[in-house]
Design goal:
Distance between the termini: 47 Å
Helix content: 40-55%
Radius of gyration: 29 Å
Largest sheet: 3 strands, antiparallel
Order of helices and strands: EHEEEEHHEEEEHHHHHHHHHHHHHH
Oligomer: single chain
CATH architecture of the largest domain: Orthogonal Bundle
Shape: flat
Number of domains: 2
Structural class: mainly alpha
Length: 485
């Protein structure tokens, strides 16, 4: 036809892997045609031969020679771009870093929405088409399940602890890729102070760029945080954090108001307060306040009331009388506690039993299991409806801010009750608060753990039972977010 294409040939080394790769390529080709994203490399043709399989795709941008037929020609990958910057006077700017990673994250979100995982996100697999980054090399593509696997590239593939906690393998790969783009270092150096800056050093960056560099490091840490509840819910949230222009280095709030940050950026450089000076001044002020409060009793003697002091013999009859009558403070506490339990928690044992039952219903459909042919099978639409009904019945996943506010209010009420009715009464309420706090803190992990029962069962049926795809996607979304939507 007079134009050029790229052809990748994969020889047969293992019959089983060969079949899986052909299946993944075929599925990816169908998905890519439907998604039609410029950041996802399309496949124009895929086929098998006796000695291997091959697929045809558009030719990427190149370097080393003008003619792709020349042996010196090489495809332009993100790795090649980073290597070329090492000898330059300056590294990539923050805007360029975002420009390279944002399309990749958006492509990963599209794949995830389609129920697929790339499994090998790294700079080598990001090509450039018409100067735009494009996710490529999808021979490891698979169903979106959380089974632990050694597939992928060491350093960029998610470790077992991340996967066991329900982490998305492509989220880990995207975070480590961002680190490599930001610093030019391999992923095993994440978190080391000596490898925080690009090859040209910290001094090669402006003050604003240094602050943004530190903020982007906090974005990386959040994506691979050991606490599942602190990670990004999906790649869209990752993109929002990547784009956020903020002086805060350790906290990113999705959708936060940017007006204050914009005002800071408009300040003349000479009026900005040095960060280290501000921190030192804050420490001095806090130390002064602390010493003042501890060395001098500022409270008027006649109104100062010690907390958690046992009632005197004279006041005890009145206190017991108020407790028996049901003090207003205790009633308010019980009402607030009951409301928190009703709106933010659910019966865990019942939910776990429901997930077990749904997973058991899916189990009999898997031909790889030893199930008699005449074993009763519920229709997949019926199983899906039951699954969705159970998810809809749950209260929304408690967010960190809402959780903290509820617990803070309850502790304040318990403190008031303790001051009025004594230490023993407050200790009873504190036990209830601690129990609620433990349940709220583990809520997301519990939801994800239960969703994996259904997700893993439905993922095993994806190639044999078409109706399982909807169940798998619902379980996938719920395991990512903790909510049904």
């Amino acid at each position: 036809m007079g134009d050029l294409r790229a052809l990748k040939f994969i020889p047969i080394l293992d019959e089983g892997r060969h079949a899986r790769e052909f299946e993944a390529l075929t599925r990816y080709r169908q998905s890519a045609n439907q998604l039609r994203s410029p950041a996802i490399l399309p496949i124009e043709h895929v086929n098998r031969r006796e000695d291997g399989l091959f697929y045809i795709m558009p030719l990427s941008d190149g370097s080393g020679a003008a003619d792709p037929v020349d042996p010196e020609w090489r495809p332009t990958t993100l790795t090649a771009v980073l290597e070329g910057r090492r000898s330059a006077e300056a590294w990539l700017g923050a805007e360029q870093v975002r420009a390279y990673l944002t399309p990749v994250l958006e492509a990963l979100q599209l794949l995830s929405d389609a129920g697929l995982v790339h499994r090998d996100v790294k700079p080598d697999n990001i090509l450039f088409l018409n100067s735009s980054p494009c996710l490529a090399d999808i021979s490891l593509l698979g169903d979106d399940s959380f089974s632990i696997t050694r597939r992928g590239t060491p350093g960029y593939s998610a470790p077992s602890w991340y996967m066991e906690s329900g982490g998305h393998p492509d989220m880990y790969g995207a975070a480590t890729t961002l680190y490599s783009v930001l610093t030019g270092n391999p992923p095993d150096k994440i978190g080391r102070a000596n490898f925080k800056w690009p090859p040209q050093g910290e001094q090669s960056l402006s003050l604003d760029e240094r602050e943004e560099w530190l903020r982007l490091h906090s974005v990386i840490r959040r994506a691979i945080d050991e606490r599942p509840a602190e990670r990004f819910a999906d790649f869209t949230a990752f993109v929002r954090a990547l784009r956020q222009q903020a002086p805060e280095l350790t906290s990113e709030v999705d959708g936060a108001d940017q007006s204050a940050k914009g005002k800071r950026a408009d300040l003349p450089r000479q009026k900005r307060i040095p960060v280290r000076g501000l921190v030192l001044a804050s420490v001095v002020v806090l130390a002064f306040v602390y010493l003042s409060l501890n060395l001098i009793d500022w409270r008027p003697r006649e109104v100062a009331a010690p907390s958690f002091v046992a009632a005197t013999d004279a006041s005890q009859p009145r206190i017991e009388e108020e407790k028996q009558a049901g003090g207003v403070e205790i009633q308010e506490f019980e009402i607030a506690l009951a409301h928190a339990i009703k709106t933010m928690t659910f019966p865990r044992k019942q939910f776990s039993e429901e997930m077990d039952a749904i997973a058991a219903d899916l189990y009999v459909y898997d031909k790889r299991n030893s199930v008699p042919q005449d074993a009763p099978r519920k229709p997949l639409p019926e199983i899906e409806k039951r699954f969705l009904d159970v998810l809809k019945a749950l209260p929304p996943k408690p967010e960190v801010s809402a959780r903290s506010l509820v617990l803070s209010d309850l502790r304040e009420k318990a403190k008031e009750i303790g001051n009025k009715y004594g230490r023993a009464e407050r200790e009873k309420l504190d036990e209830k608060i601690v129990s609620l706090e433990a349940e709220l803190n583990t809520d997301f992990d519990f939801r994800k753990e239960q969703a994996l029962k259904v997700l893993n069962r439905s993922a095993r049926l994806i190639n044999s039972q078409a109706g399982s795809a909807d169940i798998m996607r619902a379980a996938q979304i719920f395991s990512y977010t903790g909510n049904y939507r």
